[in-house]
Amino acid sequence: MNEHIVFLTGKLAKISLEKVLSDISSKNEFTYDVIDIGVNVAALATVNIIIKKLDLKDVLAATKIIIPGRCRGEIKDLENYSGKKCVRGPEELKDIPRFLGLQGKNLDLSKYDTKIIGEITEAPNMSVKEIIKQANTYKKDGADIIDIGCLPSTEFPHLSETIQELKNQNFMVSIDSLDEKNLISGAKAGADFLLSLQEKSIWIMDEVEAIPIVIPDYPREEKKFYKLIEKLLKDDKEFIADSILEPINFGFTDSIVRYHSFRKNFPSVEIMMGIGNLTELTHADTAGMNALLFGIASELEINYALCTQVSEHCNKAIIEGNFARRIMHTTKTYSMPPKDISNKLLNLHERKPFPYSTSELKEMWSNVKDKNYRIYVNQDGIHVFNNKNFYTEQDAAEFYQHLDIKNDDGHAYYLGMELARAEIAFLLGKRYDQDEILKWGCSVEISEDDIMKFKTAGHTMRKLK
Question: For the chain, which domains are there?
């Protein structure tokens, strides 16, 4: 039996909605009706208004009712009234095909292959309480292991206490030091991993139970490093290997080749990659770098990634790595490129930033009957229109000469705020939705409470007349 969906909308959106549905329904096994619920603007409808205005005869044949995405109220009340399954649709009409599952896939992003080691680099200069707080933040962002960094020529009298307290709170812990005494003290205090041992310090493995990350004395001495790895395998030692990622123009490409060569030569050895030499030493946004590095990690089956957040521009390295590893695992699982999976690493841009063409917006304008301003953004610029006028500019300041908002401070403040946001979206190629916060991927965490406060403030400032 084909599904029959009833879409509830307002007068202004009805024609556009019917056009979107006519383009997709013929290709898919569902029928539909579009019902005007008796309000001009669908976003201003509430569940209570729908219940008052909806004629139940119009939904008798429905297997599902979809209400406007910005419609407020308890959707269960509408289900109880109509006796039908009800869902809140997307906020933009152009997103309906994806909402109905006709574009893209519902992908599982819960799994990953590469564990993240989050390094607390200033641990010797922090109190135990401060370290625990930082560790909890890293864990929340996606770190599986907390790395306690030791600074050269810096005393760390509370090293053992720090590791013991982390273990008491069920953290997996590594210690990172060039000082052999710190490595031994940390391991005896309960550290799970040691960063990092070279041939001259490999003897520490026989003194402690912690698993070492083994690195070459010099990254380019590949043959010598292989001999050390072969000896450890022969002795049946447990360890993780790191070929050392080098900065751009200081051997970066060669180091990627070395990781590839190492994996081919030692397919069963666990590998770690420290990504900080790329992210920390490159002044570019890190989301793309993390996507690429975790893509390499996925292909080479790299088991651990050491993420550092020392430089201010790297302050999201762990959370970016967390999403990158999940996306890359998913691409491998579904045998697809890392496209149309998640927006979390699209911090500055958007997959489809401009849902409406200028001609479609002018068609909307022809149906507007009130003087409230609508704001849209597309490749041509920022568009503002009401029942009288349609303006297009690429500089938000240019609208000052057009908009009739005299003696209305609240409305002026609201439009200024919205137009500034619209200009940012236009310049960056981001999706702009009026009365909505711009989305910045995993770089900015926005809670549902924040979104509701923002919307409430916007409606308060905008005095609808």
Answer: 3-99 (3.40.50.11600), 115-334 (3.20.20.20), 369-461 (no CATH)
